[in-house]
Write a structure and sequence with these properties.
Elements lengths: L1 H16 L4 E3 L2 E4 L4 H17 L7 E4 L14 H16 L22 E3 L2 H11 L8 H10 L1 E3 L13 E6 L5 H15 L4 E4 L6 H13 L7 E2 L6 H7 L4 E6 H7 L8 E4 L6 H14 L6 E5 L1 H7 L2 H7 L2 E5 L14 E4 L2 H11 L2 E4 L2 H7 L3
Parallel strand pairs: 2-3, 2-4, 6-7, 6-9, 7-8, 10-11, 10-13, 11-12, 13-14
Antiparallel strand pairs: 1-5
Helix pairs in contact: 1-5, 2-3, 4-7, 6-7
Family: Belongs to the AcnX type II large subunit family.
GO molecular function: lyase activity
Protein name: Phosphomevalonate dehydratase large subunit
C-alpha cells in the first residue's frame, strides 16, 4: 500500500515536471529530519508513512538531526521527544540514520549513476567532484523516491541537462576553505542558475571542496559545476558547453566579500561536517597555544567521531567541543550565543535566519585566533 502511494505521488509529480518520465535510483539521502526544521507536521507525515507500512527500496541515509548522538549539546525536552519520534519513524522505514550531511564520505557514488539526494551540499559534491547524477530533490520527494525506487527525470538526470552554460575563470588560488566558499557564493549570486564551468580553480584540500559545494548550492539554485581537470568527463562537458555567460572571480572580488572581524562568543567549524584532517589540524593549532578562551565547536559525522576515539576527550580539555549527528545550523543549542565565528559560508547564510545569531566569516586560521582574543 505504501509503495503504491509513493509511486503514485512520484508519477503525478513527474507528469508536471518531466512529462511523466522517471529514472531508477541507486541510493537516496533525505533531508528535513531535524525536529527544529520540520516540526510537528513533519513528524506526523513520517508517522503517516509508517502507518501505511512504508519501507525504502534502495539504500537510504539521513541528514543531521536536532540533537547530537552523544548528548554533548543541551537540548530542551520537547525537541528531544520530537527527534526521538523522527528517528523511530525512519528506523521503521529502513532508513540508515547516519545523521550526516556528508554521506559521500562512505557512499562511493560512481560517475553517471542516478541518486535521489536531498541535502544540497552533498548533491553538489557528488555532481561536481564525481559526476554522479542527482537533482536537488526536496526532502519529502527524496523519501518518496526511496520508497518507490525512482524519481522524476529532471534535466540533471540527462547529459543534455548538464551542459555547461557559463564559463567562469578563477583568478584566486589555491583556494582555502573560506575562499572556496566565497567563490561558490559569488558564482551563485552572479549566475543564479545554470551549470558553471570553472577554469583555474584549485582547491587546497578536502575541506575547501566541501565548502565550495555547500556555498554554491546555498547562494543559488545550482547543484552542479564542472571543474576543469577535476570533474570526471570534464573535457566532454567543455566541448559540449554553451557558454552564454562569462565571468571572472578575482582575489579582489573575494576580499570585498569579507568584512571586518570581531570577537565572537564561540568559534564553529564543520559545516559541512568536518573531515578527520580538519579536526586534527584544529587540535594541533590549539595545542600550540593551550586551552582556548572561547569554545571551539566542531561538528562531524558519527563514523568520523568514532574514529577519533579518545582524541575527543583530549579536545574537550582544550575547550574544543566535538560533537556528531547535528550541526549549529539545525540545532536549537545555537540560540544561546549572540555571535559565532566560522569559515563556512553556508553557516553564515543559515544561522542568522534560523537562530537570529550574528555570524562572523573568517579564515580558519583567523577563527582559531579569535578563540583566544
Amino acid at each position: 500500500m505504501a509503495q503504491e502511494y509513493a509511486k503514485e505521488a512520484i508519477l503525478k509529480i513527474a507528469d508536471v515536471i518531466s512529462s511523466g518520465e522517471v529514472v531508477p535510483v541507486e541510493t537516496a539521502h533525505i533531508s528535513g529530519v531535524s525536529y527544529l526544521t520540520i516540526g510537528e507536521h513533519g513528524v506526523e507525515f513520517l508517522e503517516f508513512l509508517v502507518s501505511l507500512g512504508a519501507k525504502v527500496s534502495v539504500f537510504t541515509t539521513s541528514n543531521p538531526a536536532a540533537t547530537d548522538l552523544g548528548g554533548v549539546l543541551e537540548i530542551d525536552k520537547e525537541t528531544l521527544e520530537g527527534q526521538r519520534r523522527i528517528y523511530k519513524a525512519l528506523w521503521a522505514m529502513g532508513v540508515s540514520t547516519i545523521s550526516s550531511c556528508t554521506p559521500y564520505d562512505f557512499i562511493l557514488t560512481r560517475p553517471r549513476t542516478f541518486h535521489a539526494w536531498a541535502e544540497s551540499n552533498a548533491i553538489t559534491y557528488i555532481n561536481t567532484f564525481r559526476d554522479a547524477w542527482s537533482d536537488k530533490n526536496p526532502g519529502p520527494l527524496a523519501l518518496l523516491g526511496a520508497i518507490a525506487g525512482f524519481v522524476p527525470k529532471t534535466p540533471l538526470y540527462t547529459l543534455e541537462g548538464r551542459r555547461p552554460t557559463a564559463y567562469v575563470k578563477i583568478d584566486v588560488g589555491p583556494l582555502d576553505s573560506l575562499e572556496a566558499g566565497v567563490v561558490g557564493a559569488l558564482i551563485g549570486e552572479r549566475l543564479g542558475s545554470g551549470v558553471p564551468y570553472l577554469s583555474g580553480a584549485v582547491f587546497r584540500d578536502e575541506e575547501s571542496r566541501r565548502e565550495f559545494a555547500a556555498a554554491l548550492s546555498t547562494y543559488s539554485s545550482m547543484v552542479f559545476a564542472v571543474v576543469e581537470g577535476v570533474t570526471p568527463h570534464w573535457w566532454e562537458y567543455l566541448h559540449m558547453g554553451d557558454f552564454r555567460d562569462k565571468i571572472t572571480i578575482s582575489r579582489d572580488d573575494v576580499a570585498k566579500y569579507l568584512g571586518d572581524v570581531e570577537t565572537p562568543d564561540a568559534v564553529y567549524i564543520g559545516c559541512p561536517f568536518a573531515d578527520p584532517d580538519t579536526i586534527l589540524w584544529v587540535l594541533e593549532e590549539v595545542k600550540k597555544r593551550g586551552p582556548a578562551k572561547r569554545p571551539i565547536y566542531i561538528s562531524t559525522s558519527p563514523h568520523v567521531y568514532k574514529q577519533l576515539g579518545k582524541l575527543a576527550e583530549t579536545a574537550s580539555r582544550l575547550n574544543i567541543i566535538i560533537f556528531a549527528g547535528t550541526c549549529l545550523v539545525v540545532s536549537p543549542f545555537t540560540r544561546r550565543f549572540k555571535s559565532i565565528a566560522t569559515n563556512s559560508l553556508k553557516a553564515a547564510f543559515y544561522i542568522p535566519k534560523l537562530h537570529e545569531v550574528r555570524v562572523i566569516p573568517c579564515r580558519k586560521e583567523k577563527c582559531i585566533e579569535l578563540a583566544y582574543a
